[in-house]
Write a structure and sequence with these properties.
The protein has 14 helices and twelve strands. The chain is of the alpha/beta class. The protein folds into two domains: 4-47 and 302-394, Aspartate Aminotransferase, domain 1, CATH 3.90.1150.10; 49-296, 3-Layer(aba) Sandwich (Aspartate Aminotransferase, domain 2). Helix 9 links the parallel strand 5 and strand 6 (210-214). Helix 5 packs parallel to helix 11 and helix 12 (304-319) packs parallel to helix 14.
Length: 395
């Protein structure tokens, strides 16, 4: 018999994916260049040339058995050593090889982290707006996902509501900065206050509370700023990283977990994650990709187009009367819809071949997400269409 739980999930498929599929089908009808598709967060800039060269050199020069054989369960030792050194130099935290665990992207990192620090019935607190796949990721561990409502004035943490939700069953707090979908970066002030609260609660409850930090957009920050690194503020932090966004490698499925050297059981957490892999099948990420990461070194794609696009869209939205917080990073913007139901708003926009994602799926009804990881020319061509939509439907 087919598992009924997963069969039931067919009725709750990703809204983002459904809209993206519609955009593809509509593109076949009228030409995809005429569909202003702001649905899917798929990077639109090429990966660094250094990465491509590294991969080509690997296949030309290395022993095929080293390339295509299984990697160790904790990851390629050279990749782990390289990452420990890179993170230590960048953030001033004394990571060692033993504190790094290689994964198949941030999703795999999160899958391991949730199981590492919870048991069924424990609670994980997250903050709206949030990446909607967190729900099934957490549900399948047996943990309970509790969501703090958003502070829509700036999308920082609404601490009064957060503190109300804290209780002895909480074993982890999940954060995502820079944030999908808001584009907001948690400030140092926010992270300091979060750390202070959790340190006090750990003492009060007599057990660990971990921060699980989902960081795939860490390097995509605007105005010349950098993203504050959560592990610098709180010892019990697990950083979950993916090369999907900053290096434009989503299809390669490569990332890592970095355990703060001061966190509980830091010396063996990676080893424990190796055991978790046995139960969830996320073991041994691509051997080639692990080699390519340390051969390439710290190189990023040219993501400046995302800031250009963000500014163009933000200015147009403000001119049209939208309430919107200006993105500080990522490639998303999250305005308030011009009517209470963002689903209705986005449905009306589809008549103009403008495709945007309602905020309900992100835990923030009444808002909508635009993923502007598309060509700037297409962004510019979409702006008169956006203006026409607003004027005809809401003026």
């Amino acid at each position: 018999m087919i598992n009924e739980q997963y069969k039931a999930m067919l009725n709750g498929k990703s809204v983002i994916r459904e809209l993206a599929e519609y955009a593809t089908a509509r593109g076949k009808e009228i030409g995809y260049e005429n569909v202003f598709d702001y649905t899917l967060g798929n990077p639109s800039v090429p990966c660094p040339e250094e990465y491509t060269k590294a991969v080509l050199d690997i296949y030309k020069e290395m022993d095929p058995m080293a390339i295509h054989g299984y990697s160790p369960s904790l990851g390629n030792p050279q990749a782990r050593e390289y990452l420990a050194k890179e993170l230590s130099e960048r953030f001033g935290i004394p990571y060692e090889t033993k504190h790094i665990f290689m994964t198949s992207g941030a999703a795999s990192s999160l899958a391991h982290a949730f199981r590492l620090v919870t048991k069924p019935g424990d609670e994980i607190i997250g903050f709206a707006p949030f990446f909607p796949e967190y729900r099934p990721y957490i549900k399948d561990t047996g943990a309970i996902f509790k969501i703090v409502p958003p502070d829509t004035s700036d999308f920082q943490i609404q601490f009064e509501e957060f503190e109300k939700m804290l209780n002895p069953n909480v074993s982890a707090v999940l954060i995502n900065s820079p944030n999908n979908p808001s584009g907001v970066i948690y400030s140092e002030k926010t992270l300091e206050r979060l750390a202070s609260i959790l340190e006090a609660k750990q003492k009060e409850y007599g057990h660990d509370i971990f921060i699980i930090s989902d960081e795939p957009y860490r390097e995509i920050a605007f105005d010349g700023k950098t993203t504050p690194y959560p592990s610098k503020f709180y010892d019990n932090t697990i950083s979950c990283y993916s090369y999907s966004k900053g290096m434009s490698l989503p299809g390669e499925r490569i990332g890592y977990m970095a355990f703060n050297p001061k966190c509980t059981d830091a010396d063996i957490d990676a080893v424990i994650c190796g055991q978790i892999s046995r139960g969830i099948g996320h073991n041994c990420p691509s051997a080639t990709q692990q080699i390519a990461i340390y051969k390439t070194g710290f190189k990023l794609s040219d993501t400046s187009v995302y800031e250009t696009n963000a500014n163009l869209i933000y200015d147009q939205l403000v001119e049209l009367g939208f309430e919107v917080v200006k993105p500080q990073g990522t490639f998303y913007i999250f305005p308030k819809a011009l009517e209470e139901d963002a689903n209705v708003f986005c449905k009306k926009a589809m008549k103009y071949d403008l495709l945007m994602v309602p905020g309900d799926t992100f835990g923030c009804p009444g808002y909508f997400r635009m993923a502007y990881c598309i060509d700037t020319d297409k962004v510019k061509r979409s702006l008169p269409v956006l203006k026409k939509f607003v004027e005809e439907e809401y003026k």
